[in-house]
Amino acid sequence: MFKLAERITRENLIKNGEFLVIGGPCAVETEEQVRKVASALYDLGIKVMRGQLWKPRSSPDSFQGVGLTGLPWLQRIKEDFGMIIATEIVDKDQIEPTMEVVDVPWVGSRNMQNFELLKALRGNGTDQRPVILKRGASCTIDEWLQSADYIGRDRVILCERGIRSATDSTRYTLDLNGALVVKHDKRMPVIGDPSHPAGRADLVPALSRSIVAAGLDGLVIEVHPDPANALSDAKQQITPATFREVLGQIKAVYRAMDLSINRADLS
Amino acid sequence: MFKLAERITRENLIKNGEFLVIGGPCAVETEEQVRKVASALYDLGIKVMRGQLWKPRSSPDSFQGVGLTGLPWLQRIKEDFGMIIATEIVDKDQIEPTMEVVDVPWVGSRNMQNFELLKALRGNGTDQRPVILKRGASCTIDEWLQSADYIGRDRVILCERGIRSATDSTRYTLDLNGALVVKHDKRMPVIGDPSHPAGRADLVPALSRSIVAAGLDGLVIEVHPDPANALSDAKQQITPATFREVLGQIKAVYRAMDLSINRADLS
Amino acid sequence: MFKLAERITRENLIKNGEFLVIGGPCAVETEEQVRKVASALYDLGIKVMRGQLWKPRSSPDSFQGVGLTGLPWLQRIKEDFGMIIATEIVDKDQIEPTMEVVDVPWVGSRNMQNFELLKALRGNGTDQRPVILKRGASCTIDEWLQSADYIGRDRVILCERGIRSATDSTRYTLDLNGALVVKHDKRMPVIGDPSHPAGRADLVPALSRSIVAAGLDGLVIEVHPDPANALSDAKQQITPATFREVLGQIKAVYRAMDLSINRADLS
Amino acid sequence: MFKLAERITRENLIKNGEFLVIGGPCAVETEEQVRKVASALYDLGIKVMRGQLWKPRSSPDSFQGVGLTGLPWLQRIKEDFGMIIATEIVDKDQIEPTMEVVDVPWVGSRNMQNFELLKALRGNGTDQRPVILKRGASCTIDEWLQSADYIGRDRVILCERGIRSATDSTRYTLDLNGALVVKHDKRMPVIGDPSHPAGRADLVPALSRSIVAAGLDGLVIEVHPDPANALSDAKQQITPATFREVLGQIKAVYRAMDLSINRADLS
């Protein structure tokens, strides 16, 4: 088991010249389901797995997550696959009980301005884990960074996951412009989420490639062994087989950029 | 001189498996200026040049374009460099006088629902030139396609050039989601414009690469020999030297996709 | 018949301390239809009738208007009812043929940045008719005023008709905030259109009252003798009978404000 | 002191045919400050006072509220003026300690989808206090109602406080359309907040009148004895003197509607 002293830091995750890929299911549903994903990710060399124990849902009648029940499942995945675990924290009372298992807590889009949660994640200064902060669907760049300040800007990895626009033709609109502005002008690490803006699996590969090509620092992508029967986000999760293809595309684009592109415009 | 019978068609421009790159200044300012650009484009193997004779400007006090004065300059560029000429038509009375020089008329964002202009571009059926239809900044996919129907959907190349969103951190927000939906669901050719959504030159390379990586059919990019002194869009135009670099990036990403990416998700 | 010299001016229409009410059908369909409306308006003391000869439609397959065919119908309504006629001009070539009949040309939302049309409406300075300029659905206050500058700011009556927002629960969102800003900060006359933002007849009364109560200078409302069979905007047009009720509500609110409200906050 | 059994209910607050007016400062700053407001409200016959103990602020460097320190001040205002107290709850741990003093808890815009807070406000069923649920700045009507379902739809009073739009000319855009749709189609009580969408005091009277005229069930308005020196929202709070005028306007418009308006279109 990781001890606090051995915890990964933001600098471990976002290494200079590498591209962070986080994969995993929208929600942790069963131990079998998460192990299937973890195994597939392991085979592909992916080291960070996402998976939500608690699901913030628009409607109280929707699946709300397995909660702490799933924590030992994630613990065993850490032990068996050496996987780094990222999960969403939706309440400050979840921080302490999950502390030993969760390497990378994240704050979801709907909680980007839940300031009590942000303060709790800052804690008393001993917790140095990196925190992924997803952008609220209609929040400005300044609001996003101010929310990062609540946690501590040096621990935060920003995540662009789509804005709500007046002309949405998909679930959300991926805002690469906003992501580039925080990266370029504010020197903050930014990763992209192709799954939520797409809202449909068939557009995930194209948005994933565009995130790499824009020069962002990584992406987090929803992967499920059986998307059609997922308890949430069924339409936008991709299978491990598709993920393997997307990963090939991501690597190809990334390598092409490494070889031939002066990244001065982004750094 | 091209005759109507020799005109290029949409199929010539958007060839299967190739990526269309259109470069050129925001506005045609002087013959010397456009020749400089044309020469630089020629050296880079670019075959289609953009340049506006008429400039739709928010304020009546801004530069409105040189109008027909610049037409012979474009004509000589066609003759000397074999360049295909794309320019914006902002009034139906401009169609006839420019017919012999302009290979690819385009409709700007602000005129996407200027239906009288769209009807005039449809004409009587003898004009088979491809028409680029830029998307209105808050228009839906359906409205965009219905505007294409006014011209004739088989002649139109759609161009995503940024939407106006509630959280704009740049001039506009490039909407790859919308572009992918028209391409994927409607099987229409779509190119992207990285210059207007960026509104600043330093973000143009990143947005250009993301347009290629998303799998769109091409892009149109503003190139000016001396952006700082341009009469319009001074902040977002790039120099021929930067364009050469961007073109290298575009090609590298495009080749990477050709070699390794199953484009089934987009076609 | 009005002669140019007898034309009404903006100051005639927007009188200090009065509230301008313009009623009439979305589109002029038949002479019988417009006469029915004109007669109903006349009975209610309404002096300005709206009615479009040309209809800008998103789809080319939708009803496009009767065009010049309807002009004599409007002429006879002027003669028989003394009605002031407001109609949309969608092309510069329509200005001259309609000059003698149309007292108040208007520019629709989709043409707010059709600068060639705006320039043509400015004309050579002899045309002093008031022009209603509807706001584009995603245009800023500055863009709206700059478009007014193309026509001549002293002739223009601005009309707020709804913006396109990320959370539209109706056809558009009535933006009273924007209307108040142009009125308050820019001292421009602004009227409201309750019909298009509502997109449904049952919300028109409430939005009409809110326009009056906000202190705007008037409103333009769609009235049709048989909305269910209207050739356009069937869902949002109200009958003359409902219009009579709405007019009573408007007057009651307006009188309440006259008697008791210090309008200093708006003037 | 109120006991739980004597608590007001939603039906007490939103009475058929009456219009609810809630006034009070953005934030509780000092006992003197809130007593000044309470006294002014009392003199005007206002029975419900707002005032935030905790302030959710975009930046961690902004004033965060006096917290529980201010609770006895509010308690004494209840005792001395018989005032009903409404305050924002930003964390579930605040519910219990404030239970005896706070008659009407509210959920702010940024927490509309903080589902853990919503669940805590539902509690175990013994708490029957009305809860004001402000709309998130880019949330749809459906999301708003689903959030109400977390608390219990029969206890919730919805509050429209402005959306973030692509063309904001003020702090937010008051969305009467959305408010009317929830009232009309969903039969939910809806009040309006003129202060936050305005973001400037001089537009508050006009927006207040438009909220009444639209037929909403009430409004909540920020009143401060010395707005220029307020610790938050300094620009948009109005003085008790201005509030007296606005209240006169509200009553005049409301009475005009009572006397002459068939409210069938809204009920």
Could you describe the 3D structure shown?
The structure is a homotetramer of 267-residue chains. Chain A has ten helices and eight strands. With 267 residues, chain A is α/β, with parallel strands linked by helices. Chain A has a single domain, classed as Aldolase class I (TIM Barrel), CATH 3.20.20. Chain A has an eight-stranded parallel β-barrel, surrounded by five helices. In chain A, helix 5 links the parallel strand 4 and strand 5. Chain A is globular and about 40 Å long. The N terminus and C terminus of chain A are likely disordered. Chains in contact: A-B, A-C, A-D, B-C, B-D, C-D. At the C-D interface, helix 7, helix 9 and helix 10 of C face helix 7, helix 9 and helix 10 of D.
Short description:
By secondary structure, chain A is α/β, with parallel strands linked by helices.
Index terms:
globular; alpha/beta; homotetramer; 10 helices; 267 residues; disordered C terminus; TIM Barrel; 8 strands; eight-stranded parallel beta barrel
The proportion of residues forming helix of chain A, as a percent range, comes to: 25-40%
User: CA-to-CA gap between the ends of chain A?
Assistant: 36 Å
Strand content of chain A: 5-15%
- What average pLDDT do the residues of chain A reach? 93
Number of strands of chain A: 8
Please give the oligomerization state of what you see: homotetramer
Number of separate domains of chain A: 1
Number of helices of chain A: 10
Strand order of the largest sheet of chain A: 1-2-3-4-5-6-7-8
Principal-axis shape of chain A equals: globular
- Provide the succession of SSEs of chain A: HEHEHEHEHEHEHEHHEH
- Rg of Cα set of chain A: 17 Å
Q: Outline the low-pLDDT stretches of chain A.
A: 1-5, 262-267
User: Could you name the CATH topology of chain A?
Assistant: TIM Barrel
- CATH architecture of chain A, please? Alpha-Beta Barrel
Classified in CATH, the superfamily of chain A is Aldolase class I
Which pair of chains forms the biggest interface, and how many residues does each contribute? A-B, 53 and 51 residues
- Identify the CATH class of chain A: Alpha Beta
Content-based structural category of chain A: alpha/beta
User: Biggest sheet of chain A, in brief?
Assistant: 8 strands, parallel, barrel
